[in-house]
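User: I'm writing a short report section on ligand binding and want a predicted complex to refer to. Could you take this sequence and NAP and write out the structure as tokens? A short remark afterwards would be nice.
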Amino acid sequence: MAIATINPATGETLQTFAAHTDAEVDAKLAAAVEAFDRWRLVPIAERAAMLNTVADVLTRDRDALARLATLEMGKTLASSLAEVDKCAFVCRHYAEKAEQYLADEPIASNASKSWVSYQPLGPVLAVMPWNFPYWQVFRFAAPATAAGNVGLLKHASNVPQVALAIEKIFKEAGYPDGVFQTLLIGGSKVERVLRDDRVQAATLTGSEPAGMSVGKIAGEEIKHVVLELGGSDAFIVMPSADVEKAATTAVTARMINNGQSCIAAKRFIVHADVYDAFAQAFVAGMEAHVMGDPMEEATTLGPLATEAIRDELADQVDASVREGATVLTGGKKVDGKGWFYAPTVLADLPDDSPARKEEMFGPAAMLFKVTSLDEAIAVANETRFGLGSAAFTNDEAEMARFGRDLDAGCVFINTMVASDPRLPFGGVKKSGVGRELAGHGIREFVNVKTIAIA
Ligand code: NAP
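Assistant: Sure. The structure tokens for the complex follow:
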């Protein structure tokens, strides 16, 4: 895949970028090691405080940064602005909390004194996706650099300007050279970097195949890896729920980021008692979306980020319909320039339909009718993914069952799944390994060092 800015709203190639050569990458790896030698000795309070300056730069430049994201990957300008603001939030969160999260932990043992000290690992490679092109990077970079690591970003090939802008933000915030660098390289060059002895660990947010590849190489090199992969999140509605609120939230949860979010709700599992009311309100809400240029304020649904992503979604929907699924609305590409796909709702999905088994990365939802709590949980858990789940109910016993029995990294009751710097985030099953955010996230890229004095 060429490293290029291609406007998804028009299909026009706006700028292409030469990939860094192996020699240029090597120079950046050397700079990372040199930077780490000094950065790890900077007191954590100072490293963390610098994140406030990063937040200031993000806030100062939010309009230009947001426009860049919208231009490169097609999310609405309002959601790009919200994303930049969330990056400032995660920086301020770790500015305030990093020292506390990584404070020494005394542990009683046979030694006269023993404790755990959280120490940085070194250069960490971050392979990142385009869908939240700032947020995915900052939720790694803020804790990892505060912990004393240095970051090497390999961003998705369709967001090179965002990738370069992030490097510049750290520079402008006063970070020493080499603490955060962007590598302009394609996915095929990741292996060479990951196998390099100077790289100590890796994190990847992206698809299952990319995660498997990076996980396998990291395993062979015995390097720590965090994987944040796909999801096909369940959204359950039970009879005691506020159905109108559930339907409104369901539309937002499915359509966030033009439908291209790992934690977008994708499978709507609704009790038969409220199925018709929910389906009617949900379909109406999906149809109310205004498709168009994501730079325009009135637009609520932009294009998909690449032509390949739109084609894959269209193939999944078409194949599911051929196998017997019913289209309640949408189910087709939109003619004309850009990679638009109509808001789509499918029902009556056969067990083996692609939509039911795969992740649908776009504005397409699936409806399932169930007749009991047990059936709702069984349908929710039937996928190989386990990122997030949402359930709407006002019955406390049901809330407890969902919290205990849904196979997911998080369960949200009466609200949609969302990431939050204060809460750990990550998946089970094929949705990934490890956690980001909160104290759990900052402790991923550290040496949990035991120190004991006889
Ligand atoms: P992708 O194709 O896997 O790309 C993600 C990143 O991995 C890009 O930088 C890409 O580089 C690189 N890459 C691709 N194949 C690779 C390989 N074999 N080895 C090493 N690097 C490789 O994913 P995407 O389509 O851009 O993103 C969508 C996926 O990300 C969805 O499945 C979504 O659910 C998941 N996601 C998960 C989370 C989470 O937190 N769990 C968050 C957001 C997205 P190139 O661009 O150069 O190919």
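A remark for your report: Residues 77-101 form the longest helix (25 residues). Residues 120 and 446 are 5 Å apart (CA to CA).
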